[in-house]
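User: Show me a protein chain along with its predicted structure.
Assistant: Here is one chain, sequence first, then structure tokens.
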Amino acid sequence: MTSLRDTLDSCALKFHSLLPKHFLIWGVLWVIWATALWFLSEGTPPENGPEIPHLDKVLHFTYFGIGGSLFSGCWALYAPQANHWRIRFFTWCMGALIGAIDEYHQSFFPQRTGNDPYDWCADHLGAFSGACLCLWILNTARK
């Protein structure tokens, strides 16, 4: 009988096989992610659909999780000998900084609410979580 750890490692290896192997691809994807964030911050949030409490926090966490994965993956592939806790820390800092800039940017648009500390918290926690997940996948494949 396989353990949960073996099952998770197997999933990580399968997912790793789908990922780009060069750090430049990760970096370009991160720049696309940041550019998309800038334009998404200017748009009007959708008004149709059911009211789901705190859905915006889940969306912030998920979007910044993707950004954190791309940022940490780029760094880990560029410098494979780098300390992974340092990568996680700087990814968390990047998420906090970009999240703060994003919240400030949103405050200039009347249809958006900016400077929401809970959105900002979801942003940097999502970036850190994305970094942890990405580095775990890359570590599993390295073994």
